[in-house]
Amino acid sequence: ENTQLKDIVAHAKEYGFVFPSSEIYDGLAAVYDYGPNGVELKNNLKQLWWRAMTQLNANVVGIDAAIFMHPLTWKASGHVDGFNDPLIDNLDSKKRYRADVLIEDKAAELAKQGDQAGADILLADMGRLLTAEDLAGVRQLIIDYKIMCPVSGTCNWTDVRQFNLMYSTQGSAVEGDAAQIYLRPETAQGIFVNFLNVQKSARMKVPFGIAQIGKAFRNEIVARQFIFRMREFEQMEMQFFIRPGTEMEWYNKWKETRHRWHQAVGLPTDKLRFHDHDKLAHYANAAVDIEYEFPFGFKEIEGIHSRTDFDLTQHQALSRKKQQYFDNDLDPETGKPYGNYVPYVVETSVGADRLFLATLCQAYTEETITEGEGEKEQTKTRTFLKLHPALAPVKAAIFPLVKKDGMPEKAQAIFEELRHDFRLLIEDKDAIGKRYTRQDLIGTPFCIVVDGQTMEDDTVTVRHRDSREQTRMPIAELRNYIGEAVSF
Ligand code: ATP
After folding, report:
1. What residue owns the CA closest to ligand 1's atom 4?
2. Is a pLDDT exceeding 80 seen at residue 140?
3. Rounded to whole angstroms, what are the CA distances from 435 to 25, 72, 387, 396, 416?
4. Residue 152 pLDDT more than 80?
5. 38 CB near ligand 1 (under 6 Å)
6. Which residues are listed for ATP binding in this entry (predicted)?
7. DSSP-H helix ranges across 288-378
8. Does the predicted interface ipTM exceed a cut of 0.90?
9. Which domain holds residue 418?
10. Is 231 assigned to a binding site?
11. Is the C-beta atom of 351 inside 6 A of ligand 1?
12. pLDDT in tens, 35-56
């Protein structure tokens, strides 16, 4: 219950899930690398999402678009002009902050002190000022509320200025204004610009979706909370193209579908909640976040947005290429085909890294157990990752009880028999108890022990991570047994 983020960060590093980027050079802020267990867990999450989208839905197909796109893409999407964070510097501490985050933190502080009404007023004021792009007003709020202001002393702030979050680089083959190219800040636009290519080549009929997993980049100034907010991260996005006027129906459908999926991968209902956006982005007519309760509070893991025809209409205007679909279904009111229109879009957008962090936080379990009997009885804390077996980096570890009597060879034979179906490993060092502990720490659901009896009757014990119970079974049953548990 009292798991803190620092426990998760330490665990993630120690057991090969997540390392700070270029750590030998003291790291790079808000950039992280995935280690041997981390990459397996992340791949498993991505694969489950991919399957949930493109395999379980006959009307959703995938693409893999490039990170670099024509610069006009970002003009059309609104990112060049509008993808900004309001920044402010404190001249005393010489530290840079996001003005909106300072104000949100202050509101959270007020709410914590019991002044919910005051918190609401502050947030509403901020929303109004940001919408009106009244940056001087935002600065004044920070001053009026004495944010970060020592009791006796000054709080000396610079002006608030808009800072674009896109990373840009030179090197485009395009001349002039368009010479600057960007690292994509979201994967969605790669889907929009390919809307007609996909619709035609895969002969899709509206309603249909396009799914994509890929890297996105944002120059986040406030880098906090480990892999929750990174500068290079991965998104799993799906744009669902629909007939105008049907958006609320699809919005609600995807909202429920995605909520259920998060529960299926192991995030419990009571740790998930919906958070409707009060302030809608320029492209949306409805938006909701699915939030998970991290050790640092409820935070967004996925956004579901009704994006209207904003993106396709914008691309149509800037590219001068029609982004229309001919719908030959009959409109029951007129009895005629719906005809040509620019489809509306409902999007589901989840961060693979945030989902990874939520999964890790949820799986991290500390329990008090009693071991041994009589005089030898002792209580200790057992730490293990209670991952859904489908997500576990290693599905089963095989332990020859001792390194002799044919047991290592038997373990090797089991490995070879099952390695095409599951990711396994053989562990022959240390006492069995220690080996169990090591597997618990990385969330391996099964440990298979090869012992003296195995050499006689080809049975093994299977030890279960969560219950620590052991079952004896024939080697020949392992494939089905593990297969059933790890299926999703
Ligand atoms: P936030 O408000 O936390 O910055 P956002 O609303 O800007 O997020 P979207 O643009 O809706 O996020 O992106 C969709 C998803 O991408 C988010 O739900 C989140 O899981 C993920 N995501 C966005 N920014 C980051 C980031 N900097 N690091 C990791 N994941 C991110």
Report:
1. 229
2. yes
3. 33, 56, 18, 12, 20
4. no
5. no
6. 218-220, 228-233, 300-301, 351-354
7. 310-319, 352-363
8. yes
9. 394-486
10. yes
11. yes
12. 999 999 999 999 999 999 999 9
